Amino acid sequence: MHASKQKQRMNGPYQGFRKLPLAAAVALAFAAPVWAQDAAPAQPQKDKEARTLNTVTVTAQKREESLQKVPISLQVLGNTQLEQQNVASFSDYAKLIPSLSYGTAGGGVFSGPGFVQVYMRGVASGGDGNHSGSQPSVGMYLDEQPITTIQGALDIHMYDIDRVEALAGPQGTLYGASSQAGTVRIITRKPDPSGYAAGFAIEGSAIDGGGIGHVLEGFVNLPINSGTAVRLVGWQKHDAGYVDNLHGTRTYPTSGIVDDNGNLAEKNYNTADTAGIRGALRWDINDRWTLTPQIIAQKQKAYGSAGIDPQVGSAAAGYDPSTGDMAVKHFYPESSDDRWYQAAMTLEGKVGNFDLTYVFSHLKRDVDSESDYSDYGYWYDAIAGYGASFYDDNGALINPAQYIQATDGYTRTSHELRIASPQDNRVRVVAGLFWQEQEHQIHQRYRVDNLADPLSVTGWPDTLWLTQQVRRDRDQAIFGQVSFDATDRLELTAGGRWFKSSNSLKGYFGFANGYSSGSSLDPVDRYGEAGCLAQYGAPANWVSFEGAPCVVVDKGVKESDATYRLNATWKIDDKRLVYATWSQGYRPGGINRRGTLPPYVSDFLTNYELGWKTSWANDTLTFNGALFREDWKDFQFSYLGQNGLTEIRNANQARIDGLELDMSWAATYNLQINGSFAWYDAKLTENFCGWLKPDGTSETVCPAGTLDPNGNVVTGPQAPSGTSLPITPKFKGALNARYTFDLGSGEAYWQASLSHAGKRRVDMRNAETALLGYLDAYTLVDLSAGWRKDSWSVDVFLKNAFDERAQMSRFAQCAALTCGAEPYTVIAQPRTLGVRFSKEF
Question: Phi and psi (nearest 5°) for 458?
Fold first, then answer.
């Protein structure tokens, strides 16, 4: 099977050049009538004295408004900026938005390429990204539809996108559950009945020290009649690799067995091939009602998946510094086959003078993956003689290395119904209902070749550990917001969201009976086949669960609560305003699959914010900012606990103080400068000891010499009060300058972009930090230049121009205190030179 997969890999990237890709075919097919038309007339002479910034329209508050009139911390990357910065994925726009950060969630063991784990404003505690962990703290939306699942959001290909809106701070009124720390909205270009349009782009790139990649994209907007249009978008791309899987051996201490990865050694190991489509129909039913059905689908095959950080997809990969620069030494196949689609429908209309909107979406995602997990076997053998417990049916010791074969199935269905009063009323109301249900079908098989039958999970040969579970999360909410113009300058806003949520987990997880499947004598704490025996007695009494021996966990929790928001906005004049906001955000609670641990409850974030939106110098300069303090109460902290099981605790309190600035300046007619900057001080305000009190709250008093619940003497808190929260730097900023000028019969430009992030912790706890260390500060510089004539354009770009090894995150294959001596560092893509041709019709 592996040989055929290798052959398929070798042929795959070249086949993309030998056949006409879907994206270009769609665009060219509909563009054919245009080729016969006369060339576009010359553009009128520009007024060299006129310069101003374009008005940006957003829908962050569920109604259309000018960005400069919205009293929240909101950064927007418009279509022009997205194209100018060559933004193609999450990692591209994340570096342009200082409030966005991302971290590590298992290094490919628990999720894979194409997932995005997002954090905002330093609201991050770390965690291992397990399927049984907390929900995300940042909501991701594609237009009106949520695209966030338990293990992260879809990494949307950024082509034919109108804008990205990043709403920093709690959005728990209009957006709800997974918008505790903020919301990111990707707004696509919509079908337009007013006229035909099409375009395509072809891009090739070469990575310094890596391979050659390409991107093929196309769109077409096809009017059907005066009130109906279809818009189709297609893309196909090959992400080149740049991390090598070096040939090497590994000797297991207990048995002396030597493993050799010669059949898997390969240069540029971390490649991915992706193809996708997006389609939308706009139907103006009459002059008051519009129906817009949409569908987006994508298929991605990635290799070297455990070396690819799951938060940024295939654009960034992890390497093992002890092996070499941009290199790993892995011993088992690594791949991911990810297929997903999301169907959605938006109905917009008027009831009297009120705007009514109904949004439906359904997401289906299936991921088949295989991952190297041999670090786990090696380090447990080196530390605890783990290898002595692994033998075949003849009693001979075997290679204790593990690898994972997994199948994950995700579904998510949501409905939202809302009504909004006219915008020109003195009193304005937005209110609605929201309901969603998401399910995760989890299958993970941890395999050890030639493992004895008594040591293998019943019915699953060579399987040391089996996870066969179903997780379900449900959310329902009623929300509303009222705005009142107290005077012609003072606007007051109040809102609330009342929610109910539930979380359940059912299925099997654990070892065969040949290994310990519980950490205590308490039957409630036993899992695996030991749990089957404790609950049901002899194997004859077991009832299989989707092929697994029995059900060892069947737990659920329900809760309800509310969040609120108050805002006062003072309009100094038509160009300037200041605002003050008090707002709350939340993240639903859930269950711990370990039997002796109580559920974890919702954690809440309370925000106190002062901000301003200003335009100056005849709209050639905008300067916006926000100063805030956020208190994070009983925040959820996920980590690998005893026996490698994920545990989620409500881990005390934290506080984030911050300042965010955003500016745009049309310095001259030819030169525009944009900058965004953020300073954060995110830290614990109480000790984290690492265990719960008898009443279920987190213990905060644990000086050196204290006994933990297992009778172990501790040396003090695992993370004392004042410890910085992980992942987010104290400073992050981005600066861009673009200069345009006439050249021949067309227009040329040059552009320079700089992004910087400061030093960051990897883990909140001190012992883990001692092993994993800190992520160094980095500065990335991107350069580009191009020329445009009529509808043709050519762009040349150099990303990471100085080839900096920018450290984005770091992870270990298992718990840091065991595998932390062999961490993987995720870096930004090395220096990449590319050229892009595009045409619009």
Answer: -55, 125
| Domains recognised in the chain with CATH numbers | 2-35+48-405+416-686+721-840 (2.40.170.20)
Is the whole model's pTM more than 0.90, yes or no? no
Q: 824-827 and 317-319: which strand pairing? A: antiparallel
Return the SS3 of 493: strand
Among 309-318, 475-484, 547-556, 650-659, which stretch is predicted with the lowest mean pLDDT?
A: 309-318
With CA atoms as reference, report the closest residue to 290 among 347, 236, 224.
Answer: 347
Model pLDDT for residues 76-93, shown as the tens digit of each residue:
888 888 888 888 888 888
CA distance 697 to 691: 9
C-beta separation of 614 from 576 below 8 A: yes
Q: Which of 826, 680, 802, 794 is nearest to 753 (CA)?
A: 802
Between CA 230 and CA 213 the distance in angstroms is 30
- In single-letter form, the type of residue at position 218 comes to G
Backbone angles phi, psi at 361, to 5 degrees: -150, 150
What is the identity of the amino acid at 598? Answer: P
- Alpha-carbon distance of 360 to 628, in angstroms, equals 34
Name the pairing type of β-strands 138-142 and 182-188. parallel
Q: What length does the chain have?
A: 841
Distance CA 177, CA 150 (A): 12
* Residue range 480-520, pLDDT digits in tens: 999 999 999 999 999 999 999 999 999 999 999 878 776 55
Least confident of 47-56, 288-297, 467-476, 685-694: 47-56
Contact criterion met (CB below 8 Å) for 276 and 297: yes
What's the maximum distance between 2 C-alpha atoms anywhere in the chain?
A: 88
Which among 350, 489, 486 has a CA at the least distance from the CA of 427? 486
Cβ atoms of residues 822 and 320 within 8 Å: yes
Distance CA 119, CA 731 (A): 15
Of 775, 654, 678, the C-alpha closest to 730 is: 678
Contact 748, 762 (CB under 8 A): no
Q: Report CA torsion sign: 443, 446, 452, 456.
A: negative
| CB 198, CB 30: distance < 8 Å | yes
Dihedral sign from CA coordinates of 7, 10, 15, 16: positive
* DSSP letter (8 states) at residue 262: T
